[in-house]
Amino acid sequence: MLNRTDYLLKGKTEALKAINVHNNYIHTQVIEGKNTTFIVEKPPIAIVKDSLREYGMTYKGALQAAKYKLDKKSTPPIRIWGAQDMYWFYFSSQYDIDNTFVSLAHIHEMQPFNKNMTKIILTSGYYFNLSISCNKAKKRWDQARLLRGQIQDSINKQSSVPLMELPGMISEEKEEYKSE
In degrees, to the nearest 5, what angle opens at C-alpha 70 toward C-alphas 69 and 71? Predict the structure, then answer.
């Protein structure tokens, strides 16, 4: 199996799991389903940042927006919008190169493996263990759901406000230019 050098997050991406390779380099195991995993030769955080840039955002901007919406200082989930909204959360510091990211849409369940390990079960049935207490992991999951809910509420409020036609704009109905 050949490793990839680039990858962008998609709706079918379930998780980005950090893996150590030779000489302490960090690569990413991309999980797109129970039977679809592959390695990308860059850390998960680099894939997230590349994806955000591709979809017209920045990592810093996504973090700031989430912190604002959640009134949260550290480890906020992030929203990546493009063809579809994607909400992602992670389990250690937002800047850790060896962080593991999970898509909110693909998380099925979390179970305690032991006191300091959690079994992460994805919707495809794929699962893995992470070094984090189950309580802490579930709080991160809850924050991602809260962010999705708050953003959806904001969108719903905005979509119920009628749009006004601005002077100097072309009307689609009349196909003519309107002056002020």
Answer: 100
- What is the average pLDDT across 56-65? 91
Q: Is the pLDDT of residue 123 over 60?
A: yes
* Three-state secondary structure string covering 8-20: CCCCCCCEEEEEE
The alpha-carbon radius of gyration of the chain (Å, integer) is 20
Residues 145, 148, 150, 154: what is their CA dihedral angle, to the nearest 10 degrees? -170
Report the distance separating Cα 64 and Cα 128, nearest Å: 29
Specify the higher pLDDT residue, 156 or 178. 156
Which amino acid is present at 76?
P
Question: Helices in the chain by DSSP H: which ranges?
Answer: 44-54, 59-70, 134-159
Are 139 and 145 in contact by the 8 Å Cβ rule? The answer is no
Distance CA 36, CA 122 (A): 13
